[in-house]
Amino acid sequence: MAGFRAFLKRKDIEFSLRRYGIDALGAMAQGLFCSLLIGTILNTLGSQTGVEIFSTVGGYATAVSGPAMAVAIGYALKCPPLVLFSMVPVGWASNALGGSAGGPLAVFVIAIIAAEAGKMVSKETPIDVLVTPLVTIFIGVAVAALIAPPIGAGANYIGSLIVRATVLQPFWMGIIVSASVGMALTLPISSAAICHSFSLVGLAGGAAVAGCCANMVGFAVMSFRENRWGGLVSQGLGTSMLQMGNIVKNPRIWLPAILTSMITGPIATCVFKLEMNGAAINSGMGTCGLCGPIGIWTGWVDPSDAALNAGAAAISPTGMDWLGLVLICFVLPAVICWALGLFFRKIGWIREGDLTLN
Questions:
Q1: φ and ψ at 88, to 5 degrees?
Q2: What is the value of pTM for the model shown?
């Protein structure tokens, strides 16, 4: 057993929640961002402006989302070059066999298995250039054929259940989805990958956007006195994950953002009936690069396949739709979280310097 542990250490194989649940999942979200999300934005620009080059480039970017995710995961797992490059066909097969709903989740699971298997044999034989790609690709594609379809079916069922439950119980599910996805965005995991894996669109997607914006805009405004304009931009357009170190030191600083998400979520679902029908990844992005609001707008004019499958259709947004977008994504998170932050400062739960970014 000691020898096997030494072998795993030599191969840099670490079975841990941090390696898989944080590093790999976070990298997967970056792979999604650099393929599917950018492709969706370009496709929308092309369809709305009539400029064909946007749609052409967007189509190519979207088509390689599986390989992009798999390579990103391999990079996070510190794969040697031959293993890393072999992740391309693994990602393609996993995404295709997992289907539109479960593809990303299938890629996540199967890419980890293939990457670790490839690392085990890497540089262990004189014909490494043949053995390593063969093992990585064969195991990856074989496992994909075996488990990707049921993973896709399971992810589709769970996602559909959440979407339907939000339609039937918009108040309570608005609270649950908004708070949980918003917290996932601030934690060192990927809310974007989670939302895409379960195809969170429609009202559920709108609640998820509300929760993410509550955390990002909320922390940005609430910590303005400590971090000024740099903090406002880095958290409001970057990520609220920057506060994770401060949250570990004083978890109570997170309460204003969480409570804000629990308020704005049901307002989004019950008052404005705000739907996010763009690419499901946008549901978990919040105001990062304005991807959440862009996804809502994209869903209005050019709904994603996941949204179309859920019964969505293109609409001409009304003034109420635009008001809901602006209030849910920007105004309400800023005002509510700022006010709650003042209250928590007054009662001593948040102290001067607790929100300062290093």
A1: -60, -55
A2: 0.79
pLDDT tens for each residue of 4-43: 888 888 888 888 888 988 888 878 878 887 888 788 778 8
Domain ranges of the chain: 2-157, 169-346
DSSP label at residue 125: S
> What's the pLDDT tens digit per position in 327-347?
999 999 999 999 999 999 999
CA angle 252, 255, 260 (to 5 degrees): 165
Q: Using CA of residue 90, residue 99, residue 42, residue 331, what is the dihedral sign?
A: negative
pLDDT (0 to 100) of residue 8: 86
228 phi-psi bin (left φ>0, alpha ψ -120 to 50, beta other): left
Q: Residue 5: which H helix or E strand, with range?
A: helix 2-10
Quote the tokens at residue 236. Answer: 């409001």
- Among 152, 210, 203, 173, which Cα is nearest to 307's? 203
In DSSP terms, 167 is beta-bridged to none
